[in-house]
Amino acid sequence: MSDASSSSETIRPAEAAHFGALAADWWDPAGSSAMLHKLNPVRLAFLREAVDRHWGGDPRSVRPLAGKTALDVGCGAGLLCEPLARLGADVTGVDAAEENVAAATVHATGAGLPVTYYHGELASLGLGQFDLVTSMEVIEHVADKAVFIAQLAAHLKPGGLLVLSTPNRTVRSRTLLVGAAELLGAVPKGTHHWSDFATPEELSELLAGAGLVMGEPRGIAWLPSKGLHLSDDLALNYIVTAVAA
Q1: What sign does the dihedral 175-178-179-184 (CA atoms) show?
Q2: pLDDT tens profile 95-150
Q3: Pairing between β-strand 156-167 and β-strand 218-223 as defined by DSSP bridges
Q4: Which CATH code is given to the segment(s) 13-244?
Q5: Would strands 116-119 and 90-95 be described as parallel, antiparallel, or unpaired?
Q6: Max Cα separation, the chain?
Q7: CA distance 29 to 101
Q8: In this structure, are residues 206 and 149 in contact, taking their beta carbons and an 8 Å threshold?
């Protein structure tokens, strides 16, 4: 896959086509995005705790993001956008694939959730700044990680919160997230390219280059007895917060 031709571009057309082709069954928990359906509750648990900690919210509140704006970049068909809306946020989702945005819009409308979706390069959409910016399992698919992180940072309001998740580049992730996951059909073939995974140290440097400080990463691990869960084990996948330095 070739990188984008312009330093301001982050979308790899082949990646957008790959995920766009999965749009029709994105919301099927037993379909091609089944792993994302399993990941979503784990990511939301981390995000909810991070939101309460960052804004000093009440953990008992059912709408901790009321009055706040949220941007989910690489939103797919809206698996994270809809829970963010239910948590009270005014949500905008952006994805590289037009097919995903179409599927996301239909699903949100059916659920009665006022999420606004766009497709295309984030930098070209003129969306302004947001209290919360999220991008889950996306940075490993972009053409230029530094440019992508800079774009996320540019869309963060002063005092805002950024939350990212991504696979780690380890021997275990290569064996399980790429080799075994594709062999067993847990993810579609061609979803992951191990060399594009970023370690926590690399992500911390990328965030620092955009004027952000990364919080302590939490692993997303898997055990037969627990399934996917938050962990101190960062070997497979991890999730982090970042704020302005």
Answers
A1: positive
A2: 999 999 999 999 999 999 999 999 999 999 999 999 999 999 999 999 999 999 99
A3: unpaired
A4: 3.40.50.150
A5: parallel
A6: 48
A7: 18
A8: yes
